[in-house]
Design a protein that fits this description.
Two copies of one chain form a homodimer. Chain A is mostly helical. Chain A is built from nine helices and three strands. In chain A, a hairpin with a 3-residue loop joins strand 2 and strand 3. Chain A binds a DNA duplex through helix 3.
Chain lengths: ~220, ~220
Amino acid sequence: MSDQSDARARFLRLHDALRTRICLLDYPPGTRLSEETLAAEFGTSRTPLRRVLARLEDEGLVISQHGVGTIVTDVDPGEMARTYDLRRELAGLVGRLSPVAITDEIVAMGHDFLTRGEALLTNPEVRALARLNMEYFHFGTSLTMNEALRDTSERLYYRTARIWLKATSHLDLTEEIAIFLAELRDSLQALQARDAQAAADVRRAHISLCIARVNAARG
Amino acid sequence: MSDQSDARARFLRLHDALRTRICLLDYPPGTRLSEETLAAEFGTSRTPLRRVLARLEDEGLVISQHGVGTIVTDVDPGEMARTYDLRRELAGLVGRLSPVAITDEIVAMGHDFLTRGEALLTNPEVRALARLNMEYFHFGTSLTMNEALRDTSERLYYRTARIWLKATSHLDLTEEIAIFLAELRDSLQALQARDAQAAADVRRAHISLCIARVNAARG
DNA sequence: AAAGCTTTAGTTGTGCACAACCTTTATGCG
DNA sequence: CGCATAAAGGTTGTGCACAACTAAAGCTTT
């Protein structure tokens, strides 16, 4: 017996796997995903896999067209900018709506992120940066007890993550790592002060900077 | 040929129909929805219907349990309160993130809502109030061009709509209508001033009041 | 050679039969 | 009578075969 039902666990696993591949640009926008091929890879039939693709479609990451295929979406820059606007506001709300009490354990996690971030400098890789950024984002949303805020923030994060990654690959990787490290240091400082609102404000500020940077990279 | 593909149109139709039934308490929390019965009612097989139920499950309105059934959820009061907190903030953001220009047509729509609201006084019905409130909510989100904000607000609205309705049925209906009318009047005033931020603030304020009222009804 | 039609390969959508599972009811034993 | 066990009915989950559909390649005709 598993904690969750077998089917639900597999659903979550496949969903997370495909979402990660899309957001890490393993499947760049325009890629055609074959239900049959994916089903074979994951050792199931099309039926459970279609449930996963349906959710990805609801989340705006793919779009299924009858007779054509299931295609990874590419997002309108204007809509992306507006989504970032909302993400920025939500990041600030994490500090105001049911913030958690900052424990020693949380501070230690913040310190761990910084350590791992600094390790990126010795061996700079875009994918490693993206993965750590993704993990750090989840850490950030875990600082509120407001489930709706968490879910919404994550939903929007995964919708915009690809754009950030695409823009990053056009920028100087080492510089991007340095910027990320700066955020981690500011964040750690806020956590050490046991100030959840300050931590949220750090995230908010860096999303603002990220918006400006991506806009500048586009022209 | 239809504008959308046939399948997608039907999906949206079924989804909207079931979501409305759940939020209007036609299917109160705990109700067991039979896939086969619903499929028969809508003239399809289980397959397309399961796609609809899967989305409703992702939205938190039902939960499917293998061997048991698909059951309409009932929500934890604490989580509901936190969801309302977020909804309040999002309502305020509608005025700040890409607000639309208030046109004469929009003002006319606001006036129309007021007229229809006043009509409720002569024949008070909970369902009619709930339906108008739902329609008015969509009108409110249409005042921003930010798609993500619109989608998120609606998603959260449908997640909390039932709770409001359940609480309302324990309160004085005529008084609830009067409160709703006051919101419509305040809103109309803001629209006539062509002030989108003011309109958003009106909504924000009334969500705050709604939270207090629901809390008072429970305690 | 070019344009239009037909064919063909490949994809997602649908319906059905069955498997897996849970709950309730019936039954047999102490 | 009480309790445990089994059996039955009903529900969601899965796999498969086929339908509906699209796009591209190939063929025919001008």
